[in-house]
Amino acid sequence: MKKSYSTLVNKKDITSIAIGGFDGMHIAHQQLFKQLDKNGAIVAIESGYSNLTPKSFRQEYTNLPVYYYVLDNIKHLEGEEFIKLLKEEFPNLKKIVVGFDFCFGKNRKYNTTGLKNLFDGEVVVVDEVCNNKLAIHSRFIRDFIKQGDIKKANEFLGKEYKIVGQVIKGQGLGKKSFVPTINLLVEEFLLPKEGVYITKTIIKDEIFNSVTFLGHRVTTDGSFAVETHILNKNIHNAIGKIQIIFIDKIRDNEKFNSFEKLKNQINEDINISLKYFDK
Ligand SMILES: Cc1cc2nc3c(=O)[nH]c(=O)nc-3n(C[C@H](O)[C@H](O)[C@H](O)COP(=O)(O)O)c2cc1C
Ligand SMILES: Nc1ncnc2c1ncn2[C@@H]1O[C@H](COP(=O)(O)OP(=O)(O)OP(=O)(O)O)[C@@H](O)[C@H]1O
Q1: 239, exposed or middle or buried, with CB in 10 Å at 0-12, 13-18, 19+?
Q2: Phi, psi at 249, each rounded to 5°
Q3: What is the pLDDT of residues 78-101, one digit of tens each?
Q4: Per its UniProt entry, what is the enzyme's top EC class, as one word (predicted)?
Q5: How far, in Å, is the centroid of ligand 1 from the Cα of 131?
């Protein structure tokens, strides 16, 4: 469940901050957080494009308080003005942690050297964090997810990719012709490539093994759907928000020329998922 430490911690108590967009809260971001002291905080600059950990979802991946600032409100600031703002916001600030490629201020013209010149406290610059020689960045993780390469995305995230959606009514076909599924409306999160995935589904804090289809139902009504089938369990009453955790991709979305062929394939997808959870 979402934590909201930032509302509980007084900004006056904060002595160190890490600054960045932090979409995904991936392995490299976590390296920055390790440099913070026990009165540390995360200053997340919201560009409006965060879709790995949108809006306030970043708080879930850290015990440090996260404070959000809207990029449009601060991007016009000169370097001195930005530092002044930080010192007003966090009057006891002693240390700032950023990555090697951090830029800030009007036209992004200030870099880590500028930060060291302008801030009178300690500045820690973290070297590029890589995974097997590949730099870890949110934009690369987004590419992996869009390509359906969930394993790679999870490796770079340092955790399993998770989306949150609202339960909605399906076509009512699943139960009758295929298997029962929970249909979801997902608005804020980046969706993996169309296809079928081994997943876990969290409903009211309870975790279920599942298999999830997402894409255009090209075999039935053609409409776009995110639907999850809970393995070995009948769930009748899922409502509200549920979470889907992506583990691995099974296959691409396919158009079948009969419902029977789709049904056989769905059973095969279920078997692959069951085997994965059995091992
Ligand atoms: C594991 C699984 C795999 C699926 N694969 C496909 C597929 O490859 N192509 C497709 O058109 N629909 C696929 N579907 C979606 C079915 O067409 C869908 O479940 C059916 O239309 C029922 O929809 P409903 O839940 O809205 O009633 C899949 C569903 C599941 C659960
Ligand atoms: N691979 C990395 N190694 C070290 N520091 C990093 C790395 N990636 C990001 N950072 C630092 O983390 C902070 C947050 O950066 P940012 O939100 O731009 O992450 P990102 O993964 O590079 O995102 P994007 O791909 O969208 O640019 C910044 O201070 C940035 O310099």
Answers
A1: exposed
A2: -95, 140
A3: 999 999 999 999 999 999 999 999
A4: transferase
A5: 35
The predicted pLDDT at position 34 comes to: 98
Say which residues have a Cβ less than 8 Å from residue 187's Cβ, sequence separation at least 6: 165, 166
Q: What is the phi/psi pair of residue 125, to 5°?
A: -110, 120
The CATH number, out of the four listed (2.60.40.10, 2.40.30.30, 3.40.50.300, 1.10.1740.110), of the domain defined by the range 161-278: 2.40.30.30
Look at residue 224 in the predicted model and tell me its pLDDT.
96
Q: Could you tell me the distance, in angstroms and rounded to a whole number, from the CA of residue 147 to the centre of ligand 1?
A: 20
ipTM over 0.90: yes
Fold of 10-135: Rossmann fold (3.40.50)
Question: Which ligand is closest in space to the CA of residue 197?
Answer: 1
Cα 250 to middle of ligand 2, angstroms: 30
Note the ligand closest to the C-alpha atom of 126.
2
Asked if residue 174 lies in contact with residue 234, where contact means CB atoms within 8 angstroms, the answer is: no
Residue 8 phi/psi, 5-degree rounding, is: -95, -20
Residues of the chain with CATH 2.40.30.30: 161-278
What's the whole-model pTM score?
0.95
